[in-house]
Design brief:
The protein has 242 residues and is mainly alpha-helical. The protein has a single domain, classed as Growth Hormone, Chain: A (Up-down Bundle). It is globular, with a radius of gyration of 20 Å. A two-stranded parallel sheet has the order 1-4. Strand 2 and strand 3 form a beta hairpin. One of its GO terms (molecular function) is transmembrane transporter activity.
């Protein structure tokens, strides 16, 4: 189990961005135009359904397109190893945070152009569909990183400790959510003290959630490079899994 700890630590760090879709993504969605048809608005939380849609589309593409191509390139029956699958998910996670930062920067720009910085109750004239790509990427991250992590820990622990392997993957997600909350608390204190504007101002038009997303992108990128180094040193428990 000790040899799995470094992989587990990098998994925790790279999963922190995943915690944002239930909180900040939804909060941003409240501020924009949610009308999809005349007189019909969708709740911002409904965008979570795109994660499921993305998974349903990504799984067959992964199985019938990505893996066959990977087998041709790598000359390996598995196409890619479990660690490589996790690594792809980490890259997607970092990219998703960059995308989220760009979308939020665009939202702030539109709010400023329309003089809405101090009018948090007024809808920002920006379609909620701008946020859909973030949710689609979350589904792809599920297919690569989260499923890959569960598969890896379940497979690499001793057979009699399989339940612990599953617990390791789930605990990584749980701890990532906790660290996300802790990070937000610390940043809010650091940026909001002495009368400064907090990155998490209750008025999102005066907040800087985009900065936070950039920070998470950097954290995930750092975790990915650490993961690459650790992966090169890692020896699979069974040779046929390499």
């Amino acid at each position: 189990l000790v040899r799995l700890i470094p992989i587990w630590i990098t998994s925790v760090v790279s999963t922190i961005p995943y915690a944002q879709f239930m909180t900040l993504f939804t909060k941003q969605g409240v501020t924009v135009d949610r009308q999809i048809l005349p007189g019909l608005e969708i709740p911002p939380a409904s965008l979570l359904s795109f994660i499921g849609v993305s998974i349903l589309v990504s799984v067959p593409i992964y199985e019938h397109v990505f893996l066959p191509v990977a087998r041709i390139i790598t000359k390996k029956p598995f196409g890619i190893t479990m660690l490589q699958r996790i690594g792809v998910g980490m890259v997607l996670s970092s990219f998703n945070m960059v995308l989220a930062a760009l979308v939020e920067a665009k939202r702030l720009e539109i709010a400023k152009e329309h003089g809405l910085l101090d009018k948090p109750d007024v809808t920002v004239p920006m379609s909620i569909w701008w946020f859909v790509p973030q949710y689609l990427l979350l589904g792809m991250i599920d297919v690569f990183s989260l499923v890959g992590t569960q598969e890896f820990f379940y497979d690499q622990v001793p057979t009699e400790l399989r339940s612990i392997g599953l617990a390791l993957s789930l605990s990584a997600m749980g701890l990532a959510s906790f660290l996300s909350g802790l990070l937000i608390t610390v940043i809010e204190w650091a940026t909001g003290r002495d009368g400064g504007e907090s990155w998490f101002n209750t008025n999102l038009n005066r907040a800087h959630v985009d900065y936070f997303y950039c920070m998470l992108a950097a954290f995930t990128a750092f975790a990915f490079f650490a993961f690459l180094f650790i992966s090169k040193l890692y020896v699979y428990r069974r040779v046929d899994q390499v």
